[in-house]
Amino acid sequence: MKTTTHSIDHELERAVLMSLVTPQQKREQSYSAEYSLAELVSLAETAGVEVLTTLSQNKEKIDSKWFVGKGKAAELKELIDEYGANTAIFDQELSGAQVRNLEEFLDVKIIDRTQLILDIFAQRAKTREGIIQVELAQLSYLLPRLSGQGKNLSRLGGGIGTRGPGESKLETDRRHIRDRIDELKQQLFEFVKHRNLHRERRKKTGVFQVAIVGYTNAGKSTLLRQMTDADVYVENQLFATLDPTSRMLKLPGGKEIVLTDTVGFIQNLPHDLVAAFRATLEEVCEADLILHVVDSSADMMETQMHVVKQVLTELNAHGKDQITLFNKIDQCTPEQMQMLSTEGDFLRMSAYNEIDLALVCELIEARLMGDSKKFRIPVEKGDMISLMYRIGEVLENEVEGNDMVFQVRIDKQEYEKISHLLTSYATDQSLDKGENELYV
Ligand SMILES: Nc1nc2c(ncn2[C@@H]2O[C@H](COP(=O)(O)OP(=O)(O)OP(=O)(O)O)[C@@H](O)[C@H]2O)c(=O)[nH]1
Ligand SMILES: [Mg+2]
């Protein structure tokens, strides 16, 4: 059975957008209601909706029946009539009962932020896995709201052959949806198995995995495309990318890595969506290094960075090695440039600047391959000399008297593994020559 939820009719939607601000939200959220509403406008436009006007309300707490206050609902109704709207879109998630009450009172289609995002994802999903993930997220969203769907229930299918004796329509719909969710989860599981196998194989070959993450529209796909000539979709719109794309990239030292572009994040990313996309996002969890691409020219740049950190935490990937790429500096104001953080590894760049792209490669290489260290080895120690070629990348080697001196790029783990071999021959002379120079 194929079940669809409330889908947006892209030709006809003419909407008034509504946001509610409570003191609790102000405390818990790092972004302002204005920003959130402005983003809702972009989301609605991305979904193909014509946005007529917006309305917001400050209220002590959410109204369980109407979501907004009764008076505000009446004001909304006036606006809807005035503009001839056929849809109201709410910036927060609504309960089933609130949808039903608002739908009855306003007599227009009611959509909430989560549904809007799910709808955009549904439009974008191209691969089999993407389509399954979106349907799973939609049904998980719908299931607890079924009782509130009122007249919309008819959209869920059912009919002859679907009803059990004495069973209500609602129960049949619930059962269908649960069955379908199980079926989708099983199908996703097969994809995950396949992906895990693939990843294990890549791990065995010792190829490093680097994941590109960031807020939607930050320039992730542009970066992948510019660095690898990958034919990925780049567009100035929200959620241009849904399915992860991986490409091999050769670093300056010759080492090959796999670079993966992922779905963009957004504030209040629906929980069902994160859950459904967990398998795809595992690429991020399994990566050796994360490149966090930031749109430095975005008004809410810091908020966007914060949201990305939150999602990474939700995915349990926040402790991973990271490089922050402050992208789009070509369109930054001097004030915006000053705002950029200088914490940790970072680069100010433009994905369209060749020199910056080379710097990104160098940064990745330095992070993955570690620092270069100097080793001084007496020429008769042939086994140690051959070890130099196994532990990392030999950048230089020359003979000095009775020693061979190697400059080797080596990562931390490898260095720790061989550290017990290193200091036994160290002399005062080696320490004089700098702390990286060690006798073996
Ligand atoms: N000026 C400027 N524009 C950029 C830069 N990098 C990316 N863009 C533009 O930013 C827009 C979004 O780029 P994408 O690469 O699609 O962004 P994304 O992060 O993959 O976005 P989603 O897939 O939607 O999450 C496009 O119009 C790009 O051309 C940059 O360094 N400078
Ligand atoms: Mg993209």
From TrEMBL:
The keyword Nucleus belongs to this UniProt entry's keyword annotation: no
Domain Hflx-type G, chain residue ranges per copy: 208-372
PROSITE patterns in the cross-refs: G_HFLX
One Pfam assignment: GTP-bdg_N
Stretches assigned to coiled coil: none
Keyword terms, alphabetized: Cytoplasm, GTP-binding, Magnesium, Metal-binding, Nucleotide-binding
Compartments, as annotated in UniProt: Cytoplasm
Quaternary assembly: Monomer. Associates with the 50S ribosomal subunit.
Family annotation (HAMAP family): GTPase_HflX
NCBIfam families in the cross-refs: GTP_HflX (TIGR03156)
Family of the protein in this entry: Belongs to the TRAFAC class OBG-HflX-like GTPase superfamily. HflX GTPase family.
Protein function: GTPase that associates with the 50S ribosomal subunit and may have a role during protein synthesis or ribosome biogenesis.
PANTHER family (UniProt xref): GTP-BINDING PROTEIN 6-RELATED, GTP-BINDING PROTEIN HFLX
UniProt protein name: GTPase HflX
Organism: Paenibacillus baimaensis
Gene: hflX
